[in-house]
Every structure is written in structure tokens, then in C-alpha cells.
Design brief:
CATH topology of the largest domain: D-Maltodextrin-Binding Protein, domain 2
Largest sheet: 10 strands, mixed
CATH class of the largest domain: Alpha Beta
Order of helices and strands: HEHEHEHEHEHEHEHEHEHHEHH
Helix content: 40-55%
Length: 316
């Protein structure tokens, strides 16, 4: 009887805890530094969660290893809803790194935040005015074009590797800890080409410091008008997209997960929020439910594995 009473007590204590959630600040960890789409989407959704939940939301940047440092940190956190992760599909790093301290089973998907594409850019003083010129030079001078990457496993890294495979060329890739440092290397002339998320380079493009050559979709993107897609640029069928989404440590009570999902989806449905995301070249794309988000993540794993194998992307 004592055991039964204890179990009943634990059940109702858990329900009460979930219903009162949140009672203290929530931390959202992102595996990239300020200046890129990971940081942008994290701060945007943090602001909306704060409004909807009436809570203080703290954003913590833990850059490095394509988001793996942040992911492992959250995977080991207490599953109480107070430490969350904003990250893409864990299958990417699983197929790039040999020894990860976590895997997808260590997380409970909450809600996708945004879906986006990447842009191929060069510095404004670059001799390259289009993609065909880049490809021609790279074929004539193997390894002499240096490509700035936002880190192993990042969306720009996979986009660059996919482009190399589609175009039949090879860059010398230099890895940086995020899109911000990679951008600075391009502007300084240390690298000559870069694939970047739209938030990373939009300001530089508008300020005429960078020249966009390609958006990584076959037909271009309505969110980023005026930039050719792969078909127009001379790399038919080439495509590379990415997403960021909230995830909680495995074992987080589903009542809390659903509360977080409802708050995130409500915030992402606001016209002004959708506009902010669109201005960054992405689309607000909240999942219908945590379960739907989980199913979507699993469904795209085979395509991710195939893309990484085909591109030859790996951690050296």
C-alpha cells in the first residue's frame, strides 16, 4: 500500500509540476555563435516563448562541431523543460562524426521553427560574376579556390559539399566556428567563396560588400528574389535546404512539451513574426504537433545519409 501511495503521490506531483510550468527562467542553447541563422531563429523563438509563457528566456551560444557541443550539453541536461536546444536534424552529425556523445534518442522534438536555404556569395571585388565562372576557374585550378564554411555539419558546409559534387569541382574548405567568422574571412580575402544562410550575408549583400551568385534551390527562392537557382546558374537540379527546431532532453514530460509546442506555434503564426523570418530568407514552419515533428525528422534521415555519402562531406 505504501508503494502504491508513493506512486500516486509522484504522479500527481508530476502533473502539478507540469501545470505550473514554467516557474523559473528557460534556457535555449544553440550550437552556433551570433551572426547566423541559428542564433537569429533562437533569439526570435525565445522572444515569442517569453511572451506566450510569461517567462524569462535565456539564449546561450555554445558554438563548435556543427552544433554537437550544444547538442551533447542539452542531451545531458535535466529533462524538466528548462533547458532546450535549437538545432537541425541530428542525423547530419551522426554521419559526419565518428564518436558523438549523444544521438537522436536523447531528445524529444518540440516544434520546428524555420525552414531555409543557403546562398553562394563572393566578395564584391571578386573577379567572379556568376557561378559558371567559378566552376570554370575551379576546374582549371584544382584546390586553389578557398571556401569559407560555418563549421562541420552546418547547412553551409553541406551545401558547399553538395555543390562541389554537382559541379564536379573541389574547393579547399576552411572551417570556421559559425557564419560570422566565415563572412569576415571572405571579406578579408582569406577565402574566395562562401555558402551561407541568408541572415548571415543579407546585410553584406545590401551593403554591396558581397555578391550573391546562387540560391541553393533549383528554381530560386521567393523569399530571396533576384538570385538564380541551380537550374538557371548552370548546376541543374542542385538543391540544399536546412531547418532549425526546438528539442528537449528525452524524458521531458509530454505536458511540458505540448505547452512549449503550443506557445511556439502561436508565436510563429503571427504575421509580424513570419515577416521577420521571411526577411531573413527563411519560412516560418511550425510543426502540427510534437509527434508530427518527430515523424518528419525520422522521414528525412535516409535522404540526409545519401546526400552526405554522395557529397563526400566528412570531418577530417
Amino acid at each position: 500500500m505504501r508503494i502504491l501511495a508513493f506512486l500516486i503521490f509522484c504522479l500527481f506531483s508530476s502533473l502539478g509540476f507540469s501545470q505550473n510550468y514554467p516557474v523559473k527562467p528557460i534556457r535555449i542553447v544553440v550550437g552556433y555563435p551570433p551572426g547566423g541563422s541559428g542564433d537569429f531563429t533562437t533569439r526570435l523563438i525565445a522572444d515569442e516563448l517569453g511572451k506566450e509563457l510569461g517567462a524569462t528566456i535565456i539564449v546561450e551560444n555554445k558554438p563548435g562541431a556543427g552544433g554537437s557541443i550544444a547538442s551533447e550539453f542539452v542531451a545531458r541536461a535535466t529533462p524538466d523543460g528548462y533547458t532546450l536546444l535549437n538545432q537541425g536534424n541530428h542525423a547530419i552529425n551522426k554521419n559526419l562524426y565518428k564518436d558523438l556523445g549523444y544521438d537522436a534518442r536523447d531528445f524529444t522534438p518540440v516544434c520546428r521553427v524555420a525552414l531555409g536555404t543557403t546562398i553562394m556569395v563572393v566578395a564584391s571585388n571578386s573577379p567572379f560574376s556568376n557561378v559558371k565562372e567559378v566552376i570554370a576557374y575551379a576546374k582549371a585550378n584544382p584546390g586553389k579556390l578557398f571556401s569559407a564554411s560555418a563549421g562541420f555539419g552546418s547547412a553551409p558546409h553541406l551545401a558547399s559539399a553538395g555543390f562541389e559534387a554537382a559541379a564536379g569541382i573541389k574547393f579547399t574548405t576552411v572551417q570556421y566556428k559559425g557564419g560570422g567568422p566565415a563572412s569576415q574571412s571572405l571579406l578579408a580575402g582569406d577565402t574566395q567563396v562562401m555558402f551561407a544562410t541568408s541572415p548571415t550575408v543579407t546585410g553584406f549583400i545590401k551593403g554591396n560588400r558581397m555578391r550573391p551568385l546562387l540560391v541553393t534551390l533549383p528554381k530560386g527562392s521567393p523569399s530571396i528574389p533576384g538570385i538564380p537557382g541551380g537550374d538557371e546558374a548552370g548546376v541543374p537540379g542542385f538543391s540544399s535546404t536546412f531547418w532549425f527546431g526546438l528539442q528537449a532532453p528525452a524524458g521531458t514530460p509530454m505536458e511540458i512539451v505540448r505547452k512549449l509546442h503550443a506557445a511556439a506555434a502561436k508565436g510563429l503564426a503571427k504575421p509580424e513574426v513570419r515577416e521577420k523570418i521571411a526577411l531573413q530568407g527563411m519560412d516560418a514552419s511550425p510543426s502540427a504537433s510534437p509527434e508530427a515533428f518527430a515523424a518528419e525528422i525520422v522521414a528525412e534521415v535516409p535522404a540526409i545519409e545519401q546526400a552526405i555519402r554522395a557529397s563526400g562531406a566528412k570531418v577530417d
